[in-house]
């Protein structure tokens, strides 16, 4: 492995951290659309006395926060991409934003439950026709936002293939994926609001409005739980069960006989980019760290390798 190849792969790791302009533009556009729709839905839900529409509006506020954090993460990652204080780039800014968004989502879900239970205990009249119009508008907006983010995601995948980043694994832009899933979850909440309003309008099931709000709260909480687990794993460097770890072990197993892997640490430094530090015990006097790096070079997602080699001429041969 020559110095130029090392530099190219390190630039790829930083490229995973900064994302791309198309994804940032898409999330910024969706943010403005979402903020406007959120204001309309919260105002209409309060004015027309629909808990389902109000819950959808508050859920959209959490969606606006998530999109806003995504936009901030892209901007911060781009701004500080060349800052030497970030040893492995700024990609984890995106992950930290997603983790913060998940915490906020849990609070929003709790507020939705409180409001829905209050309406179940003390039902109030609902202006169904007006509320239905607002709910349908929210659903249309969600589909439009999903389409924008989906196109940005397709562009990101094309960008990754063009630069050789998808070497044997499929890696999503977690920042963009979080925003996209949030939009889909919000669309599902809008569908529940429409169903609740229809049931109350045509069959007089007023209880269906707060009941659907409760279902929406559960969906928000589940999404928050999944996001916390996913982002928390990255922040805590929980990567030792990733397939790339087994790939490293397989490469070490193909090194000269008598070489034993005694310590291995793998962590993620970008979207689909990993660093590893490994210690080897060997009887092969010719084995060098450069040779190990060259062997690992077949896996392009491994962008930084630290190798420690211990010679053991007097130790029992481990070839068997």
How would you characterize this protein structure?
The structure is a single chain. Helix 2 packs antiparallel against helix 5, helix 3 packs antiparallel against helix 6 and helix 3 runs parallel beside helix 7. The protein has a three-stranded mixed β-sheet with strand order 1-2-3. The chain has 320 residues and is mainly alpha-helical. 40% of the residues are buried. The protein starts with a helix and ends in a 9-residue tail after the last strand. The N terminus is likely disordered. The protein has two domains: 233 residues, Cation efflux protein transmembrane domain (Alpha-lytic protease prodomain-like); 69 residues, 2-Layer Sandwich (Alpha-Beta Plaits). Strand 2, helix 9 and strand 3 form a beta-alpha-beta unit.
Draw up the topology in text.
Layout: H1 3-18, H2 21-47, H3 51-79, H4 92-121, H5 128-162, H6 174-203, H7 208-235, H8 243-253, E1 260-270, E2 273-282, H9 289-296, E3 302-311
Parallel strand pairs: 2-3
Antiparallel strand pairs: 1-2
Helix pairs in contact: 2-3, 2-5, 3-4, 3-6, 3-7, 4-7, 5-6, 6-7
Quick structural overview:
With 320 residues, the protein is mainly alpha-helical. The protein is built from 9 helices and 3 strands.
Task: Identify the notable features of this structure and list them briefly.
about 325 residues; mainly alpha; Alpha-lytic protease prodomain-like; Alpha-Beta Plaits; 2 domains; about 10% strand; elongated
